[in-house]
């Protein structure tokens, strides 16, 4: 039998800290960074706990007395059913011409260990250029959140079930003729 999903309180607890970090630096709804910052408050329950993407801290950056950007830290958090947390924390800056966001956070158990990996899809609205998209697959192993090694070098643009087998496939928009076409990935299928 599959383990029960964790109580919503795991997500509520992690997201409460995220909301507190956002509230500590009041950002007007019409500011360019309000919407991108809001995309970081995500939590996905799993059989063994939950994955979350949260803002940890923010600070206002001024130049010549004007609010120019927001600098801060954000984390990918894995919470076990018992409430223990592991974090992978990153620094970022939200400025008028580069606004990082989280476009998606979904899970799939690629290695079959019973605890799904997190597929994190990020973006950045870029002024005077094409928006930037990036993705990565993270796993919870030995008490730490780390990149999922078999997906190393793959930057998924999305995760969806392409072949109808019920599991999420990593979808990339790799240019035609690239080296990756010569060797298909083994990430989405078990050998």
Which helices and strands, and how do they pair?
Elements: H1 9-24, H2 34-38, E1 42-46, E2 49-63, E3 66-80, E4 85-95, E5 98-108, E6 117-126, E7 132-141, E8 144-147, E9 158-160, E10 169-171
Antiparallel strand pairs: 1-2, 2-3, 3-4, 5-6, 6-7, 7-8, 9-10
Largest sheet: 4 strands, antiparallel
Order of helices and strands: HHEEEEEEEEEE
> Which stretches of 5+ consecutive residues score pLDDT under 50?
176-185
Total count of strands:
10
From the alpha carbons, calculate the radius of gyration and give it in angstroms.
18 Å
Cα distance spanning the termini: 24 Å
What fraction of the residues are assigned to beta strands by DSSP? over 45%
Strand line-up in the sheet with most strands? 1-2-3-4
Task: Give the overall silhouette.
Answer: globular
| Mean pLDDT score | 84
Structural class: mainly beta
**Helical amount:** 10-25%
> How many DSSP helices?
2
